[in-house]
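Posting this for the archive.
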Amino acid sequence: MTNAVAQLRAATDLTMDEVIGIRALPDAVRTPDVGYALGVIHGAAAALRATPREMLEDLDLLTAPART
């Protein structure tokens, strides 16, 4: 899960809230790896019977860690 979130953060300048809430990502960031990462997040959330936002929030992955 952390790899999927890290990959999405690296691929776009959108927040995780925006990434999981958007219906279609911009063409510039729509790659197979980004699609796979989104699939991992949505699949895991479905398995947990939660929304992607709820799951990421529970795992403390919704917001990026503070940069040092």
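The chain has one domain: 2-58. The two ends are 23 Å apart (CA to CA).
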